[in-house]
Design a protein that fits this description.
alpha/beta, 2 domains, 14 helices, Rossmann fold, binds zinc ion, single chain, Metallo-beta-lactamase, Chain A, 7-stranded mixed sheet, 23% strand
Length: 446
């Protein structure tokens, strides 16, 4: 049985929390002061720490988690969950200080239960504590977001939490490293790879969905491409007018950039794909054309931890939404009674995947002003994911105008939408630095 340590001063609140947790089968330890909390942590190494996010309980909880961290292997790092007043500034501060999840008071027992299942399913809390050395073994799949923004980078204090870099996601299985898109997020990934591998050669595979700037603009600043020991293979499809090689290298031509792609010291190979099923290392990949201006591809990676679908730029239900303008939007189940072919094939493409990273640039109101621009609203992303039986949805390609606060509100609405339709779908907004572990045992959809 898993153990939870509840660090809360107020007796009534502590009792409410513990009774909710008992229903979910947790073994419970309670602490109303610092000495007891530290002693219980030392003795029992709890799997979860829940605290009241106000002084002094928040500080005590952080101390307990550090204590558990020193004693245990990183993979046993306990989840730290903060219960706070629900204000966005407090939530951001809590997450910034290392809290894994934040829940607003008064804590609803059902919401708490759902959150705990989600945290356990995601590989036990804060996966960022795992050591990196992931090359060379193990069937665990690791996914990390390096750039989550759409259209153009959006740095600044109001986007600091979710991040301002454009599309880039890293997926690792054993020794294979796949990078999905080369937006500006790829620069920091490159820095991390160089630091990790030091003098050892790096073999990387980059899958490009399409050649809009926000998906390729980081490549000229990708440090591994500047080392002659490294191999970078770029996969993608022909663009609207010219081949992939020409489109990618032209962004580095003078006068746009001082170094041409051919002058990069690493071995850069561009593999223009014709087939829709192929293999990268040990990973089987399927591709699918998406509704987006020009040529745009979605990828599905079949990993031992289940499949990961990456559809960063797609306009879902474009024809249907035009029809809905005249009347009310139907319930999600009814949407699929008359779904056009392009949406149905996209749905079949992602059906049953473990993780779906999906374009959710707008909300429905904003979408109405941007019909035909090639992007979806989060409401449709949730409907689409629910219908396809996806387990976990990451809202992606955040609008550059959206602040952290707006994105947090969109996630809350998206979760509420899934809940209203009794769907077990887990929804999060992708954020830079967020890492997801998919243990091999969960390989239901391979
Ligand atoms: Zn884009
Ligand atoms: Zn695009």
């Amino acid at each position: 049985m898993k153990t939870v340590l509840v660090i809360v001063g107020e007796q009534a609140f502590r009792s409410r929390l513990t009774s909710g947790l008992k229903e979910h089968g947790w073994s419970i330890l309670e602490a109303g002061d610092s000495d007891l909390a530290l002693a219980l942590t030392r003795r029992h190494q709890p799997d979860l720490i829940i605290c009241d996010w106000q002084a002094p309980w928040s500080d005590i909880a952080l101390s307990c988690r550090s204590l558990a961290d020193q004693k245990e292997t990183p993979s046993r790092r306990p989840i730290l969950l903060a219960a706070g007043n629900g204000q966005i500034a407090e939530k951001m501060a809590a997450l910034e200080s290392g809290v894994d999840e934040y829940i607003a008071k008064p804590v609803d027992a059902e919401a708490l239960g759902r959150m705990l299942s989600r945290l356990s399913a995601n590989g036990h809390g804060n996966a960022e504590a795992k050591p990196r050395g992931g090359h060379g073994g193990g069937a665990e799949t690791r996914l990390k977001f390096w750039g989550v923004r759409g259209s153009i980078p959006a740095p600044g204090p109001e986007t600091a939490y979710y991040g301002g870099n454009t599309s880039c996601v890293e997926v690792r299985v054993g020794g294979d490293i796949i990078i999905l898109d080369a937006g500006t997020g790829i620069r920091k990934l490159g820095v991390a790879l160089v630091e990790e591998f030091q003098d050892r050669p790096i073999n990387l595979n980059v899958l490009i969905t399409h050649t809009h700037w926000d998906h390729i603009q980081g490549f000229p600043f990708f440090p591994p491409a500047y080392n002659l020991n490294n191999k970078v293979t770029i996969y993608g499809y022909e663009g609207a007018r010219q081949g992939l090689q020409s489109t990618l290298s032209s962004q580095m031509e003078s006068p746009y950039f001082p170094i041409s792609m051919q002058q990069m010291p690493g071995t850069i190979t561009i593999h223009e794909l014709k087939e829709m099923n192929f293999r990268v290392g040990a990973i089987e990949v399927k591709a699918h054309f998406l509704n987006h201006p020009g040529i745009c591809i979605g990828y599905r990676l079949f990993t031992p931890g289940g499949s990961i679908s990456y559809l960063p730029d797609v306009e879902l239900f474009q024809q249907l939404r035009t029809r809905w303008k005249a009347g009310a939007e139907p319930a999600p189940a009814r949407v699929f009674d008359s779904v056009p072919e392009e949406d149905r094939t996209a749905l079949d493409f992602i059906r049953g995947c473990e993780v779906l990273i999906l374009d959710s640039q707008y909300d429905a109101g904003e979408y109405a002003q941007h019909s035909g621009w090639g992007h979806s609203c989060f409401e449709d992303a949730v409907t689409f994911a629910m219908q396809a039986g996806v387990r976990q949805l990451f809202l992606f390609h955040h609008d550059p105008e959206h602040t952290d606060e707006q994105i947090s509100r969109m996630v809350a609405c998206a979760r509420e939408r899934a809940l209203r339709h009794h769907s077990p779908l887990v929804v999060e907004a992708a954020r830079e630095g967020r890492e997801v572990l998919l243990p091999a045992a969960r390989a239901l959809s391979v």
